[in-house]
Structures are given as C-alpha cells and as structure tokens.
Design goal:
Layout: E1 2-6, H1 13-29, E2 37-42, E3 48-49, E4 55-56, E5 60-61, E6 71-74, H2 87-97, E7 102-106, H3 110-115, E8 123-124, H4 131-137, E9 142-143, E10 149-152, E11 155-158, H5 163-176, H6 178-187, H7 205-208, H8 214-224, H9 232-238, H10 243-254, H11 258-276, H12 281-287, H13 293-304, H14 308-315, H15 323-331
Parallel strand pairs: 1-2, 1-6, 2-5, 6-7, 7-11, 8-9
Antiparallel strand pairs: 3-4, 10-11
Helix pairs in contact: 1-5, 1-6, 5-6, 9-10, 11-14
Amino acid sequence: MRIAILAMPGVQMLDVAGPMDVFSEANKLINGRSGYELSVVGCNSEPVVASNGGRLLPDLTIREPLDGFDTLIIAGSPSVQDFEADLALIEWVRSESAHVRRLASICTGAFLLGSAGLLNGRRATTHWNSTTRLRKMFPAIDVQPNTIFIKDGTVYTSAGVTASMDLALALVEEDFGRGVALRVAKELILFLQRPGGQSQFSVHLEAQVSELGPIRDVIQWIAENIADDLTVATLASRLGMSARNFARTFKRETGMTPGDYVDAVRVDTARRMLEEGDVPLKRVAALCGFNDQSAFRRAFIRRINVTPVEYRSRFRRGAKHAPKEIAAALGA
C-alpha cells in the first residue's frame, strides 16, 4: 500500500516523521501481509529543509504523477502561506487527488487542500491557531475547530503536530484493524485512541491571540472571573452594549459565540484542574462556573468527548485509579 507524503519547504518535521513511524511500526506487525511503502514528495529534487532545520531527501517531486499510490498526505508547515498561491503545487495536489483512494492533510496542510477546492462542502479541521483563517479563506468548508482529526468520506484532515500520529493510527486501524493499531500505539507509547472528535483542548485560546480591542478586554475578564455570571447580558453590560450587538460583535471578532467561548474556557480550566490535582469533581464544577455536576459532565463530553472522570484517570499526573473507583464515579 503506497503512501505519499508531500513535504513543502519549512515543513513541520513531526508531520512527516510521526506518521512514517506509525506506518513503519505497523509494517512490523502485519505478519507477511502487504504493508506500507512510504515516499516523501518534494517540490523539487533538492533536500527539503524542515522548520527545525532538519533535512528530508524526497523520493519523488511534484513533476511526477502518483501512479499506483493509495494515499496522499499533505504535511503542514508554519510557512504554508508561501505556497497557497503556488499554482503548480496546487494543480498537482488537485490532479493527484483524483488518482488516490484516500486523501489527508496534517495541520496547515489543509490550506493546500482548500486552495485546490478539495474541501468544499466537507467538514475539516486544522491546528487550533489556524481555524479562523481557514474559515475566512474558504467559506465553503465546514471548519470544525475543536477536533483532533475528521474523516469526511475519503478525505481526512487533522489538527497540529502530534495529531498526525492520531490520524496515522486511524488509517492503520482502517487498513489492518484495531488490533494492529493498538499494538502500534503501545509500541510507540501513544494513547489509542483519542477520538477523532476529541477537543484540541486549547481551542479557545485562538481568540486570545488576536487584536480584539474591547472584546479582548472581555476575554481577559472572563478568564479571571470564570465562576461568575457570564451570560451575554452580563458581558455586554461591561462594554455598554446591547446583548444583541455584543453577541454579533463577539462572533465576528472571535469566530465563536459568547456562550461557546465561555463554555470552552470553563472546560479548559476544569481540564487543567483535573490534570494537576485531586479536587473533587463537584468542587471543580463549582469553581469553573457550572451550575451542577451534571452540567459540568455534559459540557466536558461535548467539548472533550470523554467524561471528567475518564479524563482525570488518563491525564492526571501520577494518577492510578482503581477500576472500582472509576466504575463507581462513572455511575454516579
């Protein structure tokens, strides 16, 4: 099964090396079945200099067709904007996508798929810090800013860096079954598997890095008063705006509704508390502004796709929950 990974100059090295290690490990485990044959595709035959200074020697260039390849993966790059208008590169992506069974992008590689029109009408994701730009550039894409990876038909898109390995594991599971993917994950000390819809955890921070004027001040106030009344009416009153005008302005400036943003901040605050200590869940819920533990649980599942108890059992530093304790808490 031949897989081509497009690596443009300035590529994020782990976007290439991570999936290659996953596929390579799978090859060791499939017991003689035809495995993966991996090729790096460059814009030319020169070594590809990655963003960390490392070098990749391409096996193919975009002057060559992907005859006989099963999957094309577009790796991301902090310099992706330098290539979004490269007509030769975009045309190659568009043309070769018709020759493969499966198409995928990692991190900002989604911008090349978007430029080629290959994500129009599809759900897609990218690194949390680039979702707003992806949405603005390509309004025909249903951008999902809160996910690790998304499969829409035969097209996959993923979040940044380590999400490339989540995506690769999903492809291995699709090709050879969950047993092989699980063994690969264990060998590489990976968590199998963060659900495709699991939150990137810090998606709401995307709003904080923008120059938002008065909205930025409200965002800062939300972070410092997470347990308070954070309704639209309350937030709007801080700026002397009507609730309707505030909600419209907030959505325009951040790409999120005020309610979604507050929900995301509260869940992210709770996530850090679950990772770093033993505060009872009821207390975590109260400190983060949730009315009760049930509302906390629903919000956490909606954002993270796991329960607070499951999250703590997986990610709290040094945590070792007994099965009985987990079962009891889940049933509570």
